[in-house]
Design a protein that fits this description.
alpha/beta, TIM Barrel, eight-stranded parallel barrel
Amino acid sequence: MCSIDIKLASNVVPFMQMRDRFVSGGYNKGYELEKQLEFIASLEGITGVAYGWPCQYDDPAELKMVVDNHGLKIATLDTDIYTEARFKHGSFSSRDPKIRRAAIEQTKKAIDAAVACGAPDVNLWPGHDGFEYPFQGHYDDAWKYIEECLLEIAEYNPDLPVSIEPKCKEPRANNYFANTGKVLMLVNKINRPNVGITLDFGHSLAALENPAESAVLAMREKRLRQIHINDNYRDWDHDLVPGSATVWEHVEFFYWLKKMNYDGWFCIDIYPYRNEGRKVLENTVNVCKKCCAIADKLIEMNIEDIMRTGDHLDILNNLWNMFDI
């Protein structure tokens, strides 16, 4: 089997209880953080962990020590502005200036923690910034508040990158940070070099984007900070093992990331409610290895010249011919 030449990390979700609104007690027994990290560290090909802040540890230095002890790196810290009811009507877009202030301060704490524990960036997913009904959101005010909040966050520590993650829906019916284009517009308007984009493959699918094209757009603007890998059927954020539903889209995605020299982290973002966590991650590593190998082969074949002629069916035929059956 080919080696993997990307920086691959995982969150700890595959070894958590994983609750939803139907099974509030969780689908699994779950493990403490030490055991979660032990499982992740034992998986060949995974060298980092993506973790949320705040967490079980009050001291980010202690979190770093625990992660270091398992031979892992902290790939990112995720800012928690979505698990508390106080943000249910929005965080950065909230009508209430106290709530907006709370979201800003929560993010600043995550930035400080990221610096202290050596994380390369902070991931920012404003999941409650959105609306359900017509006339529910004052769009002009909401986007003004969002810009003001993110500008303050960007200027808090210009040396620490902040990466904004788009998602079209859930938990809101409609999210303001809905797709790559909207977030690129926002990031470019803020116009600070430390603000970029997290491209979640599944979120891109659910927004009816082509993830490879979205990656290229973000990289052309030099804004792609982080990748989340998973899969779905384009109608919901199912967080499946990569390549379960969209095979060629994954191959194309890895091709363009390699072609344009993306060198950030690939963070596994999967919720295996009914599957064993270790097996899910092993499968994911295998898919990433295969996609990397195929991408390398396509680059060697110089398929860019074929794309420029419009003979894309020749490329697809070559891909099918790679299956030696």
